[in-house]
Specification:
Structural class: alpha+beta
Mean pLDDT: 91
Strand order of the largest sheet: 2-6-7-10-1-11-12-13-14
Distance between the termini: 106 Å
Number of helices: 16
Helix content: 40-55%
Bound molecules: adenosine-5'-diphosphate, magnesium ion, zinc ion
Low-confidence stretches: none
Radius of gyration: 34 Å
Number of strands: 16
Strand content: 15-25%
Length: 473
């Protein structure tokens, strides 16, 4: 008989918050010594009063939005009671009755196409501490205790290890993209619930749960091995399948029973009377939505709405550093189209010519904005702007000071320009003669001379005007 594998995942990820879930202790990643990020609240001392970390709620909502979930705007915390030395309060605060996100959906791509994986729920909970076993004793480190996690629970929608692996990769990139979790190596841990059933059946088989898996290679091996064990049990009656928790042995390449699967009743789930319900009102929810990072397509659309061409928008969006630079200037009320031109042509041109990577120098949007605005108002010429930008990039110059010190502001001083024009006419008798004989182009030579005298910083309009007047006399 042909069998179908059915898998549901429960994935734990640590949220990128500054502090723990119910107190102001820093996350364990800030810890230097065991137990140096702890306080009475995270150590579960009697009488402590937990306060919910707002950032953890926001990140969990963002995770829900990334996974197309419904957000429960009224969400509560519950106690899950069990005893273990890494859990000082003898209960974990988690969400059982009103999890923060429910009913999501993620697209997962595999070699046979796109599968839709349902998300049953996402709930927020605290991590446990860490036990360190030495030869003659066991030590406990509470730095990780009460660090915020989300647990993402899927529906039993996976049909192969390939789908599971693809889901985990997609999940990781979504969570990292939205700044929800750094998903460091080993920090994404999942419990794999697996059963098999005759192909075509819509009844779920007896499932086992393989706990605490993090390496993708092991996850794939464990799923395939466990499925074979289930099928053998059904086909050849090698054993009787029971619902239980198992662990994967990476050396022996098989699963071993850990304990009978606990039921919810064993944990005595109970509303935690110390933690106030969290109400996410419409305004707050909208703020969280607005703070979600844009996808590439959304970014391109946003820039096109600001007046950029598709090509310009795509070029900016291809480099996060360029997005940052342009957005910095947009907030300074700049002509966005001109700014994109300066970034893509002048800025990138200077970098390329000098063999510098954008990420190696931090160009201050304010400085570039000053150059663009000053060039647009005619106080410096376009060419001068480019020279100044080079100095800003290569010498970290301040553009305004640089222009003043090098006498680069456009000269609009009439007397000065008249003097220079007289000098230019005297120095170019041949060109003057040609011009008067009807060769319009000869004017360029005289104009160029005058501009050079002013080190490129004369007002081109004024020079031209005075030059024409003088020649007409
Ligand atoms: P529990 O409360 O016992 O942990 P849940 O209903 O929350 O059970 O399910 C836990 C996970 O197990 C979910 O990801 C779910 O999709 C998956 N699951 C449930 N039943 C099965 C089954 N028969 N086969 C495979 N996965 C299952
Ligand atoms: Mg569960
Ligand atoms: Zn604490």
């Amino acid at each position: 008989m042909a069998y179908e594998i059915v898998i549901g995942l429960e994935t734990h990820v640590e949220l990128s918050t500054k502090s723990k879930l119910f107190c102001s202790c820093g996350g364990h990643s800030e810890a230097n010594e065991p137990n140096d990020c702890v306080c009475p609240a995270c150590c579960g001392m009697p009488g402590m009063l937990p306060v919910v970390n707002k950032q953890a709620i926001e990140l969990a909502v963002k995770a829900g939005l990334m996974l197309n979930c419904k957000i429960n705007q009224y969400t509560t915390f519950d106690k899950k009671s069990y005893y273990y030395p890494d859990l000082p309060a003898a209960y974990q605060t988690t969400q059982w009755f009103n999890p923060i996100c429910v009913e999501g959906l993620v697209d997962v791509e595999t070699s046979i196409g796109i599968s839709k994986i349902g998300i049953k729920q996402i709930h927020v909970e605290e991590d446990a501490g860490k036990l360190v076993h030495t030869n003659d004793s066991s030590l406990v480190d509470y730095n990780r205790t009460s660090v915020p996690l989300i647990e993402i629970v899927t529906k039993p929608d996976f049909r192969s290890a390939e789908e599971v692996i693809s889901y985990l990769k997609t999940l990781k990139s979504k969570l990292q993209f939205a700044g929800i979790s750094e998903c460091e190596e080993g920090a994404m841990r999942c419990d794999i619930n697996i059963s098999v059933r005759p192909e075509g059946s819509d009844i779920l088989g007896v499932r086992t749960e393989i706990k605490n898996m993090s390496s993708l290679t092991s996850i794939e091996e464990a799923i395939n091995k466990e499925a074979i064990r289930h099928i053998d049990a059904l086909e050849r009656r090698t054993e009787v399948l029971v619902q239980e928790t198992r662990r994967w042995d990476d050396v022996k390449k098989r699963t071993f029973p850990m304990r009978n699967k606990e039921t919810a009743a064993d944990y005595r789930y109970f509303p935690d009377p110390n933690v106030m319900p969290v109400v996410i009102d419409d305004k707050w929810l909208q703020e969280i939505k607005d703070s979600m990072p844009k996808t590439i397509d959304e970014q391109v659309e946003r820039y096109m709405a600001l007046g950029l061409s598709q090509r310009e928008a795509a070029a900016i969006v291809s480099e996060p550093i360029l997005i940052e630079l342009l957005d910095d200037m947009v907030s300074k009320d700049i002509d966005v189209k001109a700014a994109a031109g300066w970034i893509l042509t002048d800025y990138l041109g200077i970098l390329k010519k000098n063999n510098i990577q954008a990420k190696d120098i931090a160009l201050d949007g304010e400085k570039l904005a000053w150059i663009i605005k000053t060039a647009q108002s005619g106080e410096i010429t376009r060419n001068t702007g480019k020279t100044v930008l080079s100095a800003v990039i290569l010498e970290n110059a301040d553009p305004k000071t640089y222009c003043e010190q090098n006498n680069l502001m456009v000269k609009t001083d009439l007397d000065l320009i008249k003097k220079v024009v007289v000098k230019a006419i005297e120095a170019n008798p041949k060109a003057v003669e040609d011009y008067k004989a009807g060769k319009e182009k000869a004017l360029l030579a005289i104009f160029g001379f005058a501009m050079r005298e002013l080190r490129g910083a004369g007002s081109p309009d004024l020079i031209r005007q005075i030059l024409l007047e003088s020649l007409a006399e």
